[in-house]
């Protein structure tokens, strides 16, 4: 029997099977020996053995995230609030860079549009409209989420973003559609104070999964090789190979096409400044030189 792991706690795994049942499974001893740990998001083969189900095979992973631990992620939806808390563009740009580094599709969602006037929303839009990312402005509290569900369907999406921006509220407003374990979900999402200790995939349908992540305090940018950082700002790609020097890091070098693009407003100043900050952050960490 085939299935997908949606939850794992204490050596037991919840698997959504192809015939749409949620079953609890152990793992075959062979995995322990091989040092393979099944992870939420894994596509697995399940066998009935002795008196229970065991996971006997794990399909090759397309990718795996470590924090949160989720396999086969197709995209990351980064959620920020337009206000309360104020959007932190540096954190946002760190997250987009990390996603690019891991080859994950990015969706950006600005929530709490009710708390910002149109000038502020325009300002935010202007910063991000020059990126290739799909941007949504929503009001999760009033269930005004536009076409967000469309981009979730047939994907495994990880929700990321600081705490308090409305991730759980967003999940709650799409939850009436969760076709399995809906009873559990409102409980799991909780009313505000819920802290996620283990990762769990919420099931929208048999090909649509969402993982909420607990709020985070710091993001380790040194995972990114400093030479690769410039490729982690997707809107720089348009100017790839146009700088005077091939090795241009778009900072102090003469004849830099990226810096020119910033001047011409082809690349947003805000994004560029965050690129420089992140670059400095990585280069001030001795670990970044080991590679
Ligand atoms: N004004 C306003 N408040 C919202 C909106 N979405 C969520 N909130 C509130 O923001 C607070 C934090 O929301 P929550 O979903 O727990 O954020 P999370 O920490 O990202 O999961 C709660 O009090 C929500 O009611 C919104 O669109 N507008
Ligand atoms: Mg939450
Ligand atoms: Zn350059």
Note the topology.
Blueprint: E1 2-9, E2 12-17, E3 22-27, H1 29-34, E4 43-49, E5 52-58, E6 64-65, E7 70-71, E8 75-81, H2 89-101, E9 105-111, H3 118-128, E10 134-137, H4 148-152, E11 156-160, H5 167-174, H6 182-189, E12 201-205, E13 208-211, H7 257-263, H8 269-283
Parallel strand pairs: 3-5, 8-9, 8-11, 9-10, 11-13
Antiparallel strand pairs: 1-2, 1-4, 2-3, 4-5, 6-7, 12-13
Describe the structure.
This protein has helices spanning 29-34, 89-101, 118-128, 148-152, 167-174, 182-189, 257-263, 269-283, and strands at 2-9, 12-17, 22-27, 43-49, 52-58, 64-65, 70-71, 75-81, 105-111, 134-137, 156-160, 201-205, 208-211. The chain has 291 residues and is of the alpha/beta class. It folds into three domains: 2-58, Beta Barrel (OB fold (Dihydrolipoamide Acetyltransferase, E2P)), CATH 2.40.50; 64-211, Rossmann fold, CATH 3.40.50.300; 222-289, Probable gtpase engc, domain 3 (Ribonucleotide Reductase Protein R1, domain 1, Orthogonal Bundle). A six-stranded mixed beta sheet has the order 10-9-8-11-13-12, covered by helices on one side. Strands 1-2-3-5-4 form a five-stranded mixed β-barrel. A two-stranded antiparallel sheet has the order 6-7. β9, α3 and β10 form a beta-alpha-beta unit. α2 (89-101) crosses α8.
